[in-house]
Specification:
This protein is of the alpha/beta class. The chain has eleven helices and 16 strands.
Length: about 350
Amino acid sequence: MSLRAVRDDLARWAGRGDPIAVATLIAVRRSAPLPPGARFAISGAGELSGSISSGCVEGDLHERLSALLGGDAPATVTYGITDEMAAGVGLSCGGEIDVLLDLHDPGDPVWQRLWQLHEAGAPGVLLTGIGAPTGSRQLLLETDRSLGTLGSAEFDRVARSRVAEWLGRSDAHVVELVHGDPDSAVFVESFVPPPRLVIVGATPIGHALCAMAHRTGFEVVVIDPREAFLRPERFPAAARLDARWPDEAMATLDLDPRTSVVVLTHDEKLDEPALEAALTSRCGYVGLLGGRRTQRKRREALLARGLDEAVCDRIHGPVGLEIGARSPEQIAVSILAQLIALARAP
C-alpha cells in the first residue's frame, strides 16, 4: 500500500500517542506484487496497516517491526526466493525486494510538511537516507524550499540540485547522490497530486464509477445541474460536487493532461457543452457514453459548433473497454479499466 493508503492509520495512531514502526518497500528486482513506495506499518497497540507484498512477507515483517519498537536498530532487509529456497520467507512470484525498517516520528517537521502538501494537492519529493548509517535522515524537497537533512551538507546540496528532475515524476527509486558512494544512497519518492476524474452526470453509472475511481487513487469531481440527482449521500467519495452547467463548472477546473473527463448524462443538452469544454482543454482523456447513433449525433453537433474532425477524434466512444458490460457497475468497471490501461500504456 502507498503512503497515502496508510496515512489515516498513522495519523490515528499518532493522535493517541502510540509508537509506530514502518516497513517501506524501496527496491524490486524481477516480479513483485507492489511497487517501491508500498508500506506496512504497525502500532505499539498491535494494529496493522498497509502491505508490502500482499501477504508473502508481512508475517516476518511484523516480527521485525515489533522488535524495532522494542529497541532494535533500523535496518534494511531483503526477501526473495532462489532455486535453493523451497520454503521459508519469500515471494511466491519469484521476485526479490529490499525493505527499509524504521520508526515513524509524527512530530518530525518533514512529515508534518509532507502531510500538508498531500492535503493541498501539491507536489513534493521525499528523500530517505539508506546508506550507512541506516536511520531516519530525511530531506523534503519542494520547488523553492527544502526541509530536513540527509546528514551531509554535500548530499543535501546535490539533492536540491536535482529537484526539478524528481518533481516531474510520480514514482519511487533508489539513487546514489554521489556515483560510486554507497553511503550517499537515498530512496527518492516523488509525490504528485492524484490523477483527477471529472464525471459529468450523477447517474447510476456515475455513482458506481465515482466509488471505484476513488478507491483506485483518483480525485473525483461530479458535475450535474440536476441537483435532485447530485446528492452528497449518493457520492460520499467525491472530492467535489458541482451543480452548475457542465461547461461553466469545467471552466473553473484546470483540465490538465492528468485529468480524465467522462460524459454520462446521455442528454444532448448536457453532453454537448461538456464535450466541447473537455475537447478544447488539455485534458488527457474524453469518454462519452452511448452507442453508435449517439456517438454520431454528438459528433455532428460538435462539428456544427466549430470543432474540427481531429479534435472530435479524441473522444473514446462508446466509453470503456468492450467487455460485454451491462449493469451500471460493470460499465463503471469497463471505464475504469480503460483509464488504467491508457495510463499504463508506453
